[in-house]
Amino acid sequence: MPIESFNPYTGRVLRRFRPFSWKKTERILAQAHRTAAEWRTTSFEHRAGLMHRAAALLRERQDELARLMALEMGKPVTDGRAEALKCALTCEYYADHAAEFLRDEQIRTEARHSFISYEPLGVVLAVMPWNFPLWQVIRFAAPALMAGNVGLLKHASNVPQCALALEKIFQDAGFPEHAFRALLIGSDLVEPLIADDRVRAVTLTGSEGAGAQVAAAAGRHIKKTVLELGGSDAFIVLADADLELAARTAAQARMINAGQSCIAAKRFIVEKPVVKEFVARMKEHLLAFRAGDPLDDATQYGPLARPDLADDLTRQVEDSVRQGARVELPGGQDRPGTALFRPMILRNVKPGQRAYEEELFGPVAVILEARDAADALRLANDSRFGLGGSIWTRDEERGQQLARRVEAGAVFVNAMVKSSPEMPFGGVKKSGYGRELSYLGIREFVNQKSIWVAKPEKREEKKVE
User: Fold this and answer.
1) Which tens digits make up the pLDDT trace of 183-220?
2) What pTM did the predictor assign?
3) Which residues are bridge partners to 301 per DSSP?
4) Any catalytic annotation for residue 262?
């Protein structure tokens, strides 16, 4: 079955690729394994020079890359340029800080000299999604390469040209040819790759189901994994919040990437005294978003990445309405089989409804009414996911206290949840485990080796009479 690059806005196939056979895949793996043995011996200074060049190429090619994302998965070009620049910033961040993050850590013991050495593992397999086709990859690749590892990328099958564009950037920057390779393969070859002893670790960003499959395969073969999975982020609005700021940000947070973001705000938990005003303001801001051709700079959101994703979201909404949810803002698909999905708001959402229990991966906002702050916290934590969340209140100290009690990998007070190279990123519960970004991210795929140098043994000299 061919791998297709498909334009969700026009419905046309852009390119078809023949998937790599296992023989070709295994040959690339062998080359990557040989490269890993050499790459690990290079200096941080050498790696940093190449990584800075990769960053420069991302900046130089931002228009080309933005166009490619717009064509392959519907991201507006303005957002695509921002994504390319964020990738460049992250490459520069790790180029500048990797040596510091991985320097030997001295430990005081009874030894003469003892320390922790952070050493590369080798070949790391990355299974990546389509929604941020550059950013999801770079936040793995930049720290992994700077740590002395090499990477094999199994990208989502609807963004093959984005995968190849990233491979070319690293090669044009001067990295060894097989230090970073894109594998145009189906999901059927992921488990054989994980089983191969030359693959030392696996990272996946994707759905809960995909994460479970990769974790199970890695567990059978004792491989380190990092999983960044789904999210149903809580956006808590307390009665003392700046409602206009909260509502405006809420609309932006729900519409990130047409709602196709793991850390997009999805559940809007609002204290009862202000829920009516908040919903009215949020509705106004959502209606102001402009849909259109992703190649047009004026477009603020494009289609979902595939028509079947819009069909699935429509079924979730329709099932929820049958289960008792109420449509506050109509929207959705224009007709079945199309990818454009206009923003919606659902109210009267209760436990047992699909909109309450599941992640809605598209521009559907779920409103949950809370009696007070304690009830808001209960609702926020009443989810199997735990990726991110935000709290809106004029009382900053109270916001921080509540943030500590939200079961999530990141909580923002009076700001929209986002990822940045300086702060660790990842989740708890069904949102996965492990961390990307910051110094924690680069330490995920290294051997944290203890090295112990004993004190010289004291010898008693015999007394000569």
Assistant:
1) 999 999 999 999 999 999 999 999 999 999 999 999 99
2) 0.96
3) 291
4) yes
